[in-house]
Amino acid sequence: MSTTKVALVTGAGQGIGRSIALQLARDGFDVAVADLAFQEEKARGVVAEIEALGRAAIFVAADVSKKDDVVSAVDAAAAQLGGFDVIVNNAGIAQVKPILDVTPEELEKIFAINVNSVVFGIQAAAAKFAELGVKGKIVSAASIAAVKGFPILGAYSASKFAVRAITQVAAQELAPQGITVNAYAPGIVGTGMWDLIDEKLSEINGKPRGQNLKENVDSIALGRIETPEDVAGVVSFFASEKADYVTGQVLLVDGGMLYN
Ligand SMILES: NC(=O)C1=CN([C@@H]2O[C@H](COP(=O)(O)OP(=O)(O)OC[C@H]3O[C@@H](n4cnc5c(N)ncnc54)[C@H](O)[C@@H]3O)[C@@H](O)[C@H]2O)C=CC1
Ligand SMILES: CC(=O)C(C)=O
């Protein structure tokens, strides 16, 4: 059995997930890059980048809103990479709509992808850790919208508040097994997600494209947009032995937008 640690990152074909996968590879992990099947080409590019860093990597097609897919992804990572130590429940979607306009279907969709996926990831990882006798680490994507509700991001904010609750609960329930459960709460990260948010906000409030993003970035104390690498550094910490005594936390990594 290999002594290299193994991590699985969901939504790792692009954006924050890609940067997390690459950072964990630099930290010495072999990495399972999980994403939707249609993202295979991008995800295989991430696999190649990880291999270029001298680590093993695989692509796993998984829709995180389906429990069977998440369990199969964890099984594939453990079987093909030779262990299982860390899961990063990163995949998520945004919805940009006034609360009065959100439909039942939209609510179901965002909760299935942003919330159910985190429960499935925790369940699948905890079962694999128990099978392998590993004191593993679970890290999930929250948001500044997990700490403060943001207008026009109502369903999204609700889904991220739920991630925070699940993180606190799972941390307490899994502590006896030595498993830690934490979450990262980014602010305004320059990824495809904010391209979409900016576009939809422009449609709603009539501001020119880019203006909503600029106004949000102007409110950041450190004065610049967040990069996926800024987020990956925090996940690297949560996944490391340096965070062995940290659990149940949602860490704001927002350049100074919210303060606790
Ligand atoms: N971009 C931002 O400003 C912020 C992002 N976040 C969170 O960080 C996480 C990553 O966001 P970004 O990289 O910005 O988004 P992104 O839209 O650039 O990438 C999301 C990835 O998740 C994948 N994905 C979507 N639905 C999926 C599903 N059902 N199953 C498997 N994979 C799926 C997509 O294919 C994509 O590769 C999300 O949970 C998001 O809510 C949190 C705070 C701020
Ligand atoms: C995408 C996201 O989480 C926010 C609050 O912008």
From TrEMBL:
GO terms for molecular function: diacetyl reductase ((S)-acetoin forming) (NAD+) activity; quinone binding. NAD(+) binds at residues 14-16, 35, 63-64, 90, 156, 160, 186-191. Keywords: NAD, Oxidoreductase. The keyword Protein biosynthesis does not apply. It comes from the Bacteria. GO terms for biological process: acetoin catabolic process; fatty acid biosynthetic process. InterPro entries: 23BDH (IPR014007), NAD(P)-bd_dom_sf (IPR036291), Sc_DH/Rdtase_CS (IPR020904), SDR_fam (IPR002347). Its EC number is 1.1.1.304. PROSITE patterns: ADH_SHORT (PS00061). It catalyses: (S)-acetoin + NAD(+) = diacetyl + NADH + H(+). The active site is at residue 156. Belongs to the short-chain dehydrogenases/reductases (SDR) family. This is diacetyl reductase [(S)-acetoin forming]. It comes from Microbacterium lacticum.
